[in-house]
Amino acid sequence: MPILLNRAIATTGIVLSLLSAGHAQPPDSVRSGVMSFKPEKMDWWRKARFGMFIHWGVYSVPAGVYHGHPNDGLGEWLMQDAHIPRAEYAGFAKTFNPTAYDPEKWVRLAKEAGMKYIVITAKHHDGFALFGSAASDWNIVTASPYGKDLLMPLVQACRKYGMKIGFYYSQANDWYNPGGAAAFGHWDSTQTSRSMDEYIEKVAVPQVREILTRYGDVAELWWDVPTDMTPSRAAKLKALMALQPAIITNDRLGGDVPGDITTPEQYVPATGIPGRDWETCMTMNDTWGFKVNDSNWKSPAIIVRNLVDIASKGGNYLLNVGPDAQGRFPAAIEIRLQAIGRWMTKYGESIYGTSASPFSYLPWGRCTSKPGVDETILYFHVLSWPKDGKLLVPGLSNKVVSATIFGNAQQVVTRPTEDGLVLLVPAQPTDSLVSVIRVVVQGKVVAPEYVVKPEMTYSFTLLPQQATIDNAAGQGSARVEGGDESNIGWWMSPASTVSWKIRVGKAGIYTLRASMSTVGEGSTFSLHAGTQHLKGRLFNTGGYDQYRDVELGQLSLPEAGIYTVRLVPDPTDWQPVNVRKITMELIF
Ligand code: FHN
Known about the structure:
The protein is of the alpha/beta class. The chain folds into three domains: 47-348, Glycosidases (TIM Barrel), CATH 3.20.20; 365-448, Golgi alpha-mannosidase II (Immunoglobulin-like, Sandwich); 452-586, Jelly Rolls, CATH 2.60.120.260. The protein is built from twelve helices and 29 strands. The longest helix is centred in the middle third of the chain and has 18 residues, at 196-213.
């Protein structure tokens, strides 16, 4: 179950938390695995894998500081966080004069970083349009000294450099144009001087029409935060997509419109999102819009790891930059884009046009693949370099055609074993960010079921990513959620079961413990291994993010070998639970 996050603490859950006031439910599209209705329009996007998100607007003027006080929240949320009256906020536009704006430089930086598309905030929640608009004077042309459209020069630069361009548009939350929604409540009586229906008709619909008819092909329309977006309001906006038949839309319009892509925010879904195209959007520091006091930058290595992780799970990475009020990228952003670009120049082949990893879990890294007719190329991204020089690819039994260190063509010796293919690698990583090993094998690689091997002590830690989730032919919605600190969540239905295949190294008595959480009164379940089972009951832990260890008792495993450990709900007494891990400790 996703935790309903407080926006001040983190942005990760904001869309889910705003989608429904009560218990969060996955959008229908996710539950039913609806694919894009025109898969061919997704071709370029699926190959691209990497794009740039740009959050830019009037909020870059205060840059997170209000009346001399730094605000803890996101830069672009300052107006809402500080409850700045409309008339006062309008003053920031009077000094928004980005004379250093050099869109060609932005596009070159994106291109050199290896990005294939850009999505820019045409209008964020503060309602300020970066384009001239007949629907509202609250725009760059009429409300700022700059007085010129900011989107057109960027579009032109994108065309010049072969970059796709898309627009973010905040369709519901608009704190300036009267009638717009405010997810956390309005604070200025002038915000509600007309109805939301009027706002949709007089501002949102005409403005979306403006951005879809002025700039040629628009690659992506990025809706955001569908507060109060009913199906009938959403339908008016969705209808405009006919103006751009090849446009790709995200899942945040609201009103039960699934869109083409799902948009995890600030995290990488641990097992991807099967059956959906998806795009993780992420900040480079802790804000989307520029903040003068935010220097918590992710390192280039972390950013490249995220990209690799996302590609290995079949998704795209939309990495954010927040330009300042003059129109410049902060130096920290430029440095990172350049470092990523150096890596992409060398290893881009292992990202663009790749498919998700055929391996459900690689403890030491990630894999992307290019399945061909006779051969499959596997790109192994090593995130944790082995001390013993050996990388086991579990379950890989295809004949190896070639294996090299990507980038310097050095041969890698491979050794088939009964557990899979072992790659014998040099003592040191071969790249300072992420090293890549390119292995070509004969035929298709069939996803082997992951078998968890014991630790040195013969004990086990069973993790969500290693599990097989059976949702009983769609009756359940259990899945792995979160990033590195993942858990099994959305386990609403007692029809779902979760299992792990384990290779027991030593017969004996094992103590079992499950780390779980629930907000229900309690949940009863059993854990099966071989012919035995243990019963467990979990009581309310006080929150889905509050985990507790449930002692399950002892199992006697009579001989070494492969076992399946399965968690099975009691259908007569089940409340949704999250599971973070199961530990099995050999005691004698
Ligand atoms: O509230 C916005 C936020 O400011 C930012 O634009 C992000 C980007 O995905 N979307 C919303 C939160 O989900």
